[in-house]
Amino acid sequence: MRALRDHDQAVATLRRSYAAVPPGQPVRLAKRTSNLFRPRAATRAPGLDVSGLDGVLGVDPQARTAEVQGMCTYEDLVAATLPHGLMPLVVPQLRTITLGGAVTGLGIESTSFRNGLPHESVTEMDVLTGAGDLLTVRPEGEHADLFAAFPNSLGSLGYATRLRIELQPVRHAVALRNVRFSRLEELTEAIGDVVTKGEWEGRPVDAMDGVVFSPGEAYLVLGSFTDDPSPPSDYTGQAIYYRSLRERTRDALTTHDYLWRWDTDWFWCSAAFGVQHPLVRRLWPARWRRSDVYHRLVRLEHRHQVAARVDRWRGRPARERVVQDVEIPLEQTAEFLRWFARHVGMSPVWLCPLRLREPAGSGSARVWPLYPLRPGETYVNVGFWGTVPIAEGAADGDVNRSVERAVSEAGGHKSLYSDAYYDRETFDRLYGGDVWRAVKDRYDPDHRLTGLYEKAVARK
After folding, report:
1. Is 1-170+434-457 a CATH 3.90.1150.10 domain?
2. Exposed, middle or buried: residue 184 (CB in 10 Å: 0-12, 13-18, 19+)?
3. pLDDT at res. 16
4. What is the pTM (predicted TM-score) of this model?
5. Which of 96, 209, 244, 450 could form a disulfide with 292 if both were Cys (CB 3.0 to 4.6 A apart)?
6. In whole angstroms, what is the distance from residue 50 CA to residue 18 CA?
C-alpha cells in the first residue's frame, strides 16, 4: 500500500510540474539519462518532474505480471523479476532504457522473434495526456485508440506513469550456439527455419540475434534457457562479448549476464573510447563499462566537438553520424546487407529477427498504426552505430538519406530514436500520420506536446 501511496504522490508531483510549464514552451522530461541520438533545440522551460516514477510497484509470480512505473529502467525491472524466475517478454539491450521509453519509442531484443516488441506485452497503462488528464488505457474500451497509437509516439501523445506488463519464466542460465555463415542467404534461411520451428538442429531456441562482420562472415547466436550448472563465461572484465562469436561455437552465460551482454561494451562502440585496448581496459573501472557512461561521453563530444576539431586540424574530412536501427523483411535482408556493405561500409552490424506477437488464442497479431509492421511477416532488425567520412561534394545527412531510401525500397521501417530526414508527406505515410493526428486532436487538443514529426525530424 505504501508503494501505491508513494506512486500517487509522484503522479501528483508530475501533474503539478506539467501545469507549471508555460503555454507555448516545449514539454520535456527532467531525467538524468537518455538513449536518444537526436540533438534537440534548447529550452528554458522546466522539465517534468518524474523523480518518483522510477520503480517497480509489484510483481505477481502467479499471474506472471508486473506493475511498473514509466521511468523504471530495465536494469531495475530485471532486478525485481529475476528472483521470481521471471523476466519481461522483451528486455532491450541497454540497462538504462526505461519501460515507458521502450513502449513510446520502441525497443527490441533476441526474444523478439516470438515476443515482438516491448509494447506488445503491455496490458494496461496510465497515461498523462497533453490535455493534462490521467487516463487508464487498455487494448479495448473508451481509450483503445490512445493505447494503439501510443507505441512510437515518442511522447507526442502523453507519458506513461504506470504500466502493467506480462512476464515470462526463465532459468538460471542461457546456453549459446554461435553458428557461422559464409552466405547471407543461408543466414536468412536459418532465421526463417528457427522462426517456423522454434528450434535448430533439434534443440529449442528461446532467443536469437546475430552479427555480420562482412557479407562473407556472419553469425547467428541461438540461445536456450537452461539450468545446466556448467561454469558461465564472464564478459564484464577483460573479455569482450562480440569477439567471442568468432572464438567459440558454444558458450553459456547466466541469464542476468546474457540480458546485459551488449551493455558492457555498448555492443562494440566502446572501441571509440579506447576501452577495448587491453591496457585501457585494465585501467578503466568496471563500473564505468556501461552504455550510459559511453552515451554521456558522446553527448559531451556533441556539445564541445573536440574530436571534430582534431580531425579538422589533421586535415581529415568531416564525419556524418550514422546511428540507426531498421526493420527489413526477411526476404530482403541479404540484399539490404550487401547494399549496406557497398554503400555505407560500417561493420560489424547487429541482426535481431522479429515478428509481431501473436498471443495465445488470439488468432492474429495486433497492428500498431504508428509503426505498421505487417502481421505474420518476419523482419530482421539491422542495427549500425558509428560515423562515416563525408565524401567530397556531399552534404551531412546524405548517407542517412540513402539508408532511408534503401529501407523504404525494401519494404521496411526505421526506428526514430536517431536522425531522420523524411519530408512530412513521406513521414506521415510511413508512420501513421492520419491516425496520429486524430488521436492528437482528441487527447491534446491544444497541441501542448511537441508533434511527432517535429520531434523526430525537426529535432524540437
Report:
1. no
2. buried
3. 94
4. 0.94
5. 96
6. 10
